[in-house]
Amino acid sequence: MSTRLPLLATTLLSLLLSGCGGNTPATSPAAPASPPTVPAPAPTASLRWSDPATWGGAVPVTGQSVTLPAGQRVLLDVSPPALAGLTIPAGSALEFARHDLTLKSEWIMVHGELRVGSEAQPFAGRADIILTDATPGENVMGMGDRVLAVMDGTLELHGQSRLAWTRLAQTAPAGGTTLNLEQAPDWAPGDTLTLTSTDFNPAQTEQVTVQRVSGMAVTLSAPLKYSHWAQTTTLGGFALSERAEVGLLTRNVRVSASDDAAASGLGAHTMIMGTAQARIEGTEFVRVGQRNVLRRYPVHFHQLGSQPASYFRSNSVHESYNRCVVIHGTRDLAVQNNVTFNTVGHCIFLEDGDETGNRLEGNLVTLVRRPNAKLGETPLLPSDKRAAAFWLTNPANTVRGNVAAGVEGVGFWYALPEHPTGLGAATGATIWPRRTPLGTFDGNVAHSGDRGLDVDNGPDADGVTHAASYDPVSVPADPKSAAVPADFTGYLAYKQRDHGAWLRGENLTLSGARLADNGVGATFAAHQSGLRDSLLVGETANTGTPENWETKGEGGRSLPRPWDADFPVRGYQFYDGLVRIENVALAGFVPSAVRQASGVGYLTENAFALNPQNQARALQWLDASARVYFPAAAANKDGDLAATFLDADGSVTGQAGRSVTASPLLRDAPDCAASPAWNASVCAGQYARFWLEDVTGGRIGPVAVQNSRGARLSLAGVPDAQKHFTTSVRVGETYAVTPSAASGHLRLGLLGRSPGDVLRLTLPVSGDPALYRDWWIDERNRLKKVPLSALDATTGDSYALEAGQLHLKLVVKPGAQAATLDICGAPLCP
After folding, report:
1. Does the pTM exceed 0.90?
2. What is the total count of domains within the chain?
């Protein structure tokens, strides 16, 4: 009955596991090819655990390491004494009898089958699988300590079908003891529940205990500490529902560590590998995951390939010291209708980026904590400092009807690597997550956290994240293939301190969204992207339950950033370009004595480019909301100084084709009308983006820009480098541009709206430089020098030089979107 494993098997498995557990470096050993498997014979008889004959004469005793008889199905008809280990060989099976049972063991290794109930006949009694740690530091077949390991075997855990979660029908006030629900639950006295925060603070998520149930009313055993909101209103044709979710944590089948795990953080973990399958439902996983340890997660589907026959559904995971459900190198798996509570680090985690075809549906993820050093917790990945409810490394999955509530980080994080990392790197060179079409993102909810949806910040091989553009195309290996626009549909976000949604990329749309009570509703760091057919609400009647230390808003309501109380609430922020907001209803953006608010604004404290052709169209204002507010430009932030957008149809300004601008270079024109409440002006004319850079990498900033009326601004450039500068300009006007230092090779351009756009510029130069248009394409595109009086008659193919001033006329040519010039101190540019 020994569990000593062959050295070769242990070595192979250790190699297979070495790259798992976060986005580990691509240099990790690749998974070896699985050895050929020989189908094990089916069990031939049912033996009873309590029968000495099953064991050759003596029933296992406390502290014994047990191996089931080969080729036999054993019925666990008694709760055995605590074991040192249990092995179920290939061809053997252990099945729980249909009554209350407890199985305690240091570890369990399943090569055959472990069964509690069946899909057709769920287990009706109480089944407890408790993993102990009397012998610390074991490493069972390379799969660690305190493990329920399934290697080439089958795990069948089927608890009773119960209502996994629902929502409040009425607000539950602080101090109350009754929850009125939208559905009548089949819960029972003694059951524990998670009740989600409906304020900004994730810590207002509560764990409560059922005292009794009557219809749709649940009486609790103790009063609530916080108020939990429940209200649905219809605005602009959209149902805006801010209702606390209530999830069931108790299940009649349970996998856990013994009580000592609460102090050690060494929880139980379940690992499914090789050719294994797992069908897990109605099961509670508590005191699970192992603190600060890679590869030791509550439930871990590891390198299984396609798994359409496996699932993880209607379970609960709580008191986890390390993640919730990890899908690694596994495809076509169903993770559905589960409830999680009080877990550390990314919760539902797609690991490397080659995980596709998985269905994440109807899950309720609550109270996801970032690692806390005071509790001895360290991040497995740098990104765990912004823990995500759903960490999604490949877009080709279905993410539908989930809730991320009370997350100390991000609700849904599309953290797309360029190629799969970790073990996935070995075969992932042909996989391009950042260019892969979106599967489905529909009907998901994020509330009570930091950022609800983040499509940005993808990981490198070492797990460090950086800005990552998502640009889905029809052939991901070919970035020039046809675009496949990604539409994130039916999304609801509320009470997010930072953003309801942030998306970076190209051809991205957020449609049918309802974004309310957020610091900022949505921002697109994107191109050809935007928000449409949606609802934005600044503040609702959900005032929250602010903590005593928090600065409060009017009426005592909670603020998204109490440490930055005057942060201006905005619905949609313009940034990058071209981006748009169209066919959107807005309400509840009312300035107060504490902070400003507006339906539309721009990304503040922004050093980067804005496109003045970003536009608003078909906006519906449902009340007297402030339409626009541009905060004063922050020091050395060129994006603030360029803030301009186009009101395409007049649904913001009342005049179609007008632009709203905060730029000192633009708002002083005679055809501009100042709007002091907006801290901006509404202007006629057409606007484009001017840019300048030192190609040699020199520091030429700050750069002064002055218009013909004498208004000027100083551009600091892209942070730190001071070699790239951009701002908004008016088409047809003249500007004087003066760098702080000379350059041997300048490049400048006009990113226009359409062919024929013209801009006049003057720059100081020394000597007689050579000027080229698109010289890197054809160095013969050298401009001719003409008298200044003749420059206006040219088509941008000439320049004038007088008294050390270079005079230019930039013209966007037919078939082009920009006019670009190089100014070189030698006959040819370097």
Report:
1. yes
2. 2
